[in-house]
Design goal:
Length: about 280
């Protein structure tokens, strides 16, 4: 049975017809404990798969690492079910000797970012201080027509969503609109961390001249993750939050919401979108 898309027995009820029982494919959700040097750091609920990317992206998002050499090794360790079978739900990470181990504030932040645990000007200043990259310096320029075409490309690549209908997606595109990587997960922040972690492991950070597209809304923590990865543009098919807009403007990131053919709303960084640049002055 797939842990990514397990099946369960369900009863379907349709008005005017008798109930029917059948097997339904669901989005997998399991806990993943992250340890650094054997010490427990955080636990997240995620869809199994691309766990190494998730772990690496989490450390980037929290400002612990920013280069692939700083993450020396990752390995699954003890994490068995009632029958003694390893569920691969505990991951131990080893950092380079010159990398400071994450402090207790990283673990605290991880438990609070799924709701709005980070708020206000102090959080925006903290992100600006911690990021090693500078999105405002990025030379990315794209057309509005290219951006409008991206949601369809993201949707076409969502293989597990096709089976379950219950996963978020994050996709990375280059300036020509080529899909570089897509990750799916039950958590929006996990999907983005998986993309960022993939980029770190491929030696692509900072993500210059790249576009991050998410399948849901753009929250503060997603903009935060984009800043930490050096991304110049974040697009979402749904709405951004007010603090997401504030952070994007403060950090020099282009933020686009309601990206759905044939329109979009630009909340920050309109100068990077060619058809909008003339009206942004």
């Amino acid at each position: 049975m797939s842990r990514v898309s397990p099946e369960r027995s369900v009863i379907r009820v349709t008005a005017g017809s008798p109930p029917t029982r059948h097997r339904d494919t669901l989005a997998g959700e399991e806990p993943l404990e992250l340890r650094v040097g054997g010490r427990s750091l955080a636990v997240t609920m995620r869809t199994p798969g691309a766990d190494f990317d998730l772990a690496a992206g989490f450390l980037v998002s929290e400002g612990v690492i920013a280069e692939s050499r700083e993450l020396v090794a990752m390995r699954y360790c003890a994490g068995v079910d009632e029958s003694g079978v390893n569920q691969f739900n505990v991951l131990d990470l080893s950092l380079a000797g010159d990398v400071a181990p994450p402090g207790s504030d990283v673990a605290r932040a991880f438990f609070t970012t799924s709701s709005c645990g980070l708020c206000g000007k102090a959080s925006i200043d903290a992100v600006r201080t911690r990021s090693r990259f500078d999105p405002p310096e990025d030379s990315l320029r794209v057309s509005s027509d290219l951006l409008i075409s991206l949601p369809a490309r993201l949707r076409a690549a969502q293989r597990v969503f096709d089976k379950t209908g219950g996963l978020h997606a994050a996709a990375l595109f280059d300036s020509a609109g080529e899909l570089l990587v897509l990750r799916e997960d039950v958590g929006r922040h996990n999907a983005v961390d998986k993309v960022v972690g993939w980029a770190l492991r491929e030696g692509r950070l900072p993500l210059r001249e790249s576009i991050l597209l998410v399948s849901g809304r753009a929250s503060f923590e997603l903009v935060q993750k984009a800043v930490m990865a050096g991304l110049p543009m974040l697009c979402a098919v749904s709405a951004p939050s007010s603090l997401a807009v504030d952070l994007a403007r403060e950090s020099g990131i282009s933020l686009v919401g309601f990206l759905r053919d044939p329109s979009m709303v630009i909340y920050a960084g309109a100068e990077r979108i060619l058809s909008a640049a003339a009206t942004s002055s």
